[in-house]
Amino acid sequence: MSEHIEVAAAEEAKRRPDYTRALQELLLQMADDDYILAYRGSEWLGLAPHIEEDVAFSSMAQDMMGHAAMLYGMLEELGAGKADDLAHLRRPEAFRNAILLERPNGSGEYADEPHYDWGFAIARCCLYGLFKEVRLEALTRSSYVPLTLEASKMLREHQYHIRYWRSWFTRLAGGTNEACSRLNAAVAQAWNDVGSLFPLGSEEEAIVRFGLSIGSDELARRWKMSAQSLFEASGLAWPGDWISPIGTGRDGQHTDDLAQVVAILSEVYRIDPAAGW
């Protein structure tokens, strides 16, 4: 069927609970993706290779957190709950982020013997960045007009992020043998979870039927084209097809790493959710 439904049909669909349910599921996936990766990005503060990267990663994490906050706000307007509660009071299994984004940056903890992998940070951010770009471009033609407007705004900001991550990806690929080797290892690690980006969860059929987004197969196809172009330009061998994971995060199946992230992010808010934060 067409990627988009007629405007009149879309307006009628918005009055239906199944339309709202599908829209909320899509928005949760988007919000949770940026929310969790923003946290992982913030963990590089003071640990990145150069002070410029400290500033860059902190700035991009702030942008992604802003995108997440905007999407949680849209969910609040749709009756899904208070935006702050959505971010801080849900249990890990209620999150819909891709598993790739919750993986730690490396061994150790931020405040206790952190041994983080810059190559993995760049590989993960770049692979996700290409996906986010594809998803936002598709959403500029969503049947839900408020989402099309916000997707266009986010896409403009995101262009700076993906440009930065592409630049580092190419830099590492064309650097020393050690840099290239570490990047290849990081890509192989990320490839185990890259398939968690594309599914749209239990509401996929409705999401596509209502013209809210293109389907997971088309998202994956467009992402693959973009990613292959990046690998070719960087001189890296294409890793091949990824394995479709049993649990993707879109269905609430996560690693223990997410539980730790959620606990840290919500620690202060849970002390007094009624306070004005």
UniProtKB/TrEMBL annotation:
GO CC list: cytosol
One of the GO BP terms on file: phenylacetate catabolic process
InterPro entries: Aromatic_CoA_ox/epox (IPR052703), Ferritin-like (IPR012347), Ferritin-like_SF (IPR009078), PaaA_PaaC (IPR007814), PaaC (IPR011882)
Pfam families reported in the protein's UniProt record: PaaA_PaaC (PF05138)
Signal peptide: none
PANTHER family named among the record's database cross-references: 1,2-PHENYLACETYL-COA EPOXIDASE, SUBUNIT C (PTHR30458:SF0), PHENYLACETIC ACID DEGRADATION PROTEIN PAA (PTHR30458)
Protein name: Phenylacetate-CoA oxygenase subunit PaaC
Native source species: Paenibacillus alvei
Taxonomic lineage: Bacteria, Bacillati, Bacillota, Bacilli, Bacillales
Gene behind this protein: paaC
